[in-house]
Design brief:
It is a single chain. The chain is of the alpha/beta class. It has a single domain, classed as Ribonuclease E inhibitor RraA/RraA-like (Glucose Oxidase, domain 1), CATH 3.50.30.40. Helices cover 17% and strands 37% of the residues. The strands form three sheets. Strands 3, 4, 5, 6, 7, 8, 9, 10, 13 and 14 form a ten-stranded mixed β-sheet that branches. It has a two-stranded antiparallel sheet with strand order 1-2. Helix 2 packs parallel to helix 3.
Amino acid sequence: MTFKTPDLCDEFESELGRTVRVVAPMFQRYGGRNSFSGEIVTLKVFEDNSLVREAFAGNGSGKVLVIDGGGSLRCALVGDQLAILAHKNGWEGVVVYGCIRDSADINGIDIGVRALNTHPQKSIKKGAGDRDVAVTFGGVTFNPGEFVYADDDGVLVSSKRLC
């Protein structure tokens, strides 16, 4: 599917308000895909990526994992092995309100990744966190089952599929 987030903003804006919600421009682009979209699956974790591995181990066809990592810049929540797992299981991409690592390797994997930054340290693994809950960052609430669209111009969220 080909789309441009500026075109989606223009098309789905009306006098009654916006259908799309625009995430604040805070993310760096990683991964082999410049643009990606899909149904939102959410995680709320803090410096623990155990649930990230569990999510990526499942079928991700047509889905994007949105991780609220609390904006932590103290460790990475996604690395090359998790990106490989996500790609293998069909995930379209991941949006990380936190850090990733192994960015050079991730850039060679056919998956879309947005993250605040990189950090070489891995996270703890205690299995803490929540799945399929509303998460809010970047001025936008991401609800499970909604849709996210990301390209070089930004990240959008919509309650309905746009294209």
